[in-house]
């Protein structure tokens, strides 16, 4: 859609700026201004929280680094506006369908949207395959005839926290990657809420519905 086209355009200009070495600064300013103009010049473009003229003014910068930051900031603004629309659609779908299956999809897709805010590529198929693999390991530990909720949760704990090594990032708790499901599955490091999301997604796959609960003070 429009937001995706704008995002590709802005990324193109950001990459072009990053690769410049001999281009006069005036040309850099023109290219950055063109990138920002593209963000606000197409019908149906998402509303930007900062006036376009303010962004353009930032391109009249004193250094190449400032120009790059202005272009990168424009990319982030479009991404944020685009994801806001996706959030509204996702939550609207969740309000219409309150089944257990829909609730699980809502959590998983929501985690992917959060990751999209900072990661250019969020491979949903790869994320789903990784969660499927974890769930398959859990099922392999259980006898369907005698499995209880307690046994299923015990098997999940073994697979996720012992075999897969998921754990809290106690050394760098506030690192942004701890919140993105892409990074959590790749590194095995997260924070309570992102680890809980993975736990809920695997639980859904093995037939256990888990609900998130807000902790006091969070």
Topology of this structure?
Blueprint: H1 2-19, H2 25-40, H3 52-58, H4 64-96, H5 100-116, H6 124-140, H7 149-163, E1 167-168, H8 181-187, E2 189-190, H9 192-205
Parallel strand pairs: 1-2
Describe the structure.
The structure is a single chain. The chain has 218 residues and is mainly α. Helix content is 66%, strand content 2%. It has 9 helices and 2 strands; from the N terminus they run αααααααβαβα. The protein has helices spanning 2-19, 25-40, 52-58, 64-96, 100-116, 124-140, 149-163, 181-187, 192-205, and strands at residues 167-168, 189-190. Strands 1-2 form a two-stranded parallel sheet. β1, α8 (181-187) and β2 (189-190) form a beta-alpha-beta unit. It starts with a helix and ends in a 13-residue tail after the last helix. The model is unreliable at 15-24 and 39-49 (pLDDT under 50).
The outline comes out as globular
Low-pLDDT residue spans: 15-24, 39-49
Write down how many β-strands occur, each being a DSSP E stretch of 2 or more residues. 2
- Averaging pLDDT over every residue, what do you get? 76
Major sheet strand order? 1-2
Sheet of most strands: 2 strands, parallel
Beta content comes to under 5%
- Separation, N- and C-terminal Cα atoms: 35 Å
Structural class: mainly alpha
Share in helix:
55-70%
């Amino acid at each position: 859609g429009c937001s995706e086209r704008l995002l590709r355009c802005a990324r193109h200009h950001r990459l072009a700026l990053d690769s410049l070495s001999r281009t006069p600064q005036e040309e850099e300013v023109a290219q950055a201004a063109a990138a920002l103009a593209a963000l606000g010049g197409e019908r149906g473009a998402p509303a930007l929280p900062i006036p376009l003229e303010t962004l353009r003014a930032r391109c009249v910068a004193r250094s190449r680094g400032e120009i790059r930051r202005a272009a990168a900031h424009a990319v982030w603004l479009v991404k944020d506006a685009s994801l806001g629309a996706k959030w509204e659609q996702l939550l609207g779908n969740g309000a219409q369908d309150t089944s257990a299956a829909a609730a699980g999809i809502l959590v998983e897709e929501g985690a992917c949207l959060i990751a999209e805010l900072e990661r250019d590529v969020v491979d949903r198929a790869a994320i789903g395959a990784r969660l499927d693999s974890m769930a398959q390991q859990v099922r392999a530990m259980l006898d369907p005839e005698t499995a209880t909720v307690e046994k299923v949760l015990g098997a999940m704990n073994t697979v996720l926290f012992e075999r897969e090594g998921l754990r809290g990032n106690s050394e760098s708790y506030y690192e942004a990657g701890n919140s993105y499901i892409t990074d959590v599955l790749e590194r095995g490091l997260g924070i309570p809420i992102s680890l809980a999301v993975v736990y809920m997604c695997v639980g859904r796959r093995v037939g256990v519905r888990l609900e998130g609960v807000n902790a006091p003070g969070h």
